[in-house]
Amino acid sequence: MIKDRALPVLTVVAMIIAVWYAGAALLNLKFEYDQAERIGKEMSFTEALPKTMAQERPVLPAPHQVAVEIWQTTVEKKVTSKRSLIYHAWITLSATLLGFVFGTVLGILLAVGIIHSRVLDKSLMPWIITSQTIPILAIAPMIIVVLNSIGITGLVPKAIISTYLSFFPVAVGMVKGLGSPDAINMDLMRTFNASRSQIFWKLRWPTAVPYLFTSMKIAIAASLVGAIVGELPTGAVAGLGARLLAGSYYGQTVQIWSALIVAAILAGSLVAIVGLVGSWLNRRMGLREA
Amino acid sequence: MSNTVISTKNLDLVFQTADSPVHALSDINLDIEKGEFVSLIGPSGCGKTTLLRVIADLEQPTGGEITVNGMTPEQARLARAYGYVFQAAALYPWRTIEQNIALPLEVMGIAKAEQQKRIAENLALVDLAGFEKKHPWQLSGGMQQRASIARALAVEPDMLLMDEPFGALDEIVRDHLNEQLNKLWHRTQKTVVFVTHSIPEAVYLSTKIVVMSPRPGKIYDIIDCDLGDERPLDIRESEKFLKIAHRVREGLKAGHAYD
């Protein structure tokens, strides 16, 4: 099984890295030629090529430069250091997780309301959809400023931006999930004379669990994006977003790319964890894996 | 006090659909006595399932009268006067067989010990003892349907309403379940209303067969089916059985003729 999958996966990874190297060479070449021209020297392609892989501020850093930067800022730095990527990742992760929990709870509550009331369905759904058409970059600074003015700073404002992005997939997924019991199962509950809350806990909720985990996978990735975006307008104090912003102020492309890669690894791990919890729960509930 | 448990008078039901109203039930007059096994038979669209659903208070009639146990169907449903068995087993996949049977008991707020007692009793009754901890997907279709009958019986209702419960099963399993259902009915003395489109099934199981015809759904014939209480499967080759089956078939044919 693992052998069957390893080859195609490794092939794709190798191709991405190859394209990345080629891109780095091409994009960074111009700088080397310009440098040579400035001091009146001719530079051949074979002379320039190795230099494109070792620039201090490359247009596109080579993979190994990013790898070295990540190594130096994670393994070789104390986690308490302001230069440690683990420290910054933790700052972002804590806001992500808090926002994800808020968003999931909010999404579920909205879905429960919408499922049980036509009025809520008609009055809330348009606003829920509208909320997602506003670019998060536009609304994030306002949330930060407004919350700052009433004395809420630090983790919570960032978490709220995460919530803003993550409640949506959960709400939509759970409206679908809680509404998905078959007519026959609803009729069955009716013949038992079950109350609304009994129908909810004994039928709707278990039916919706697989939908919940599918939407939570999307929500946790969206939460991370929200937390990073939330770190940009605060003046780049700490967090992966701050590293991105600081990197772009000072043209530290290697730093930017390291932060990006760490964010991607973080997102991938979070989605995988949610997925694993989901399939563990499915097995516990005795459902056959699809 | 009469023994009539279900009584309808000029019962009418018209479904309002987008294009035109559908006359699902028209002028249904039917009395069902306590302990009877009544089959509703007819082609699709004759309203047999709709009639069963009206009895169960899953549909509302638009005219006429109906009483169940001397009450309105809603009162009867609230009093949990019946157990309903659907076309599909409708077991919850995340519950084990015993948890599925406990479902109506949990809803009713019955004590755990009593729940355990009823689960054991009713699983034994449908021959599923030993399958308590299995999940529905681990059981065959016939076993799933038996579990759903046990779930309906666990409520300890006076009445069983069954909507083509064996329609999706193959003939061999169906024969077997028919035999078991006959024994079950004989043993428990419950009133059963049974929807089917199989003539041999209806004749084998019933004390009374209601032949229905479609558009609008109405009763064409009511046939007494006096084959005794205990019925071995080979009763189906007896002359009496074939005679009743013939009359049902003629009724179904005639009901179709003015279609």
TrEMBL record, chain B:
Molecular function (GO) terms for this protein are: ATP binding; ATP hydrolysis activity
**Per the database record, which ranges form the ABC transporter domain?**
8-235
Q: Which InterPro entries match?
A: AAA+_ATPase (IPR003593), ABC_transporter-like_ATP-bd (IPR003439), ABC_transporter-like_CS (IPR017871), ABC_transporter_ATP-bind (IPR050166), P-loop_NTPase (IPR027417)
Q: Which residues form a coiled coil?
A: none
- CDD domains from the UniProt entry: ABC_NrtD_SsuB_transporters (cd03293)
Q: Which UniProt keywords apply?
A: ATP-binding, Nucleotide-binding, Transport
| Top-level division of the source organism's lineage | Bacteria
| Family from the record | Belongs to the ABC transporter superfamily.
What is the name listed in the Swiss-Prot or TrEMBL entry for this protein? Sulfonate ABC transporter ATP-binding protein
Whose protein is this, by species?
Ahrensia marina
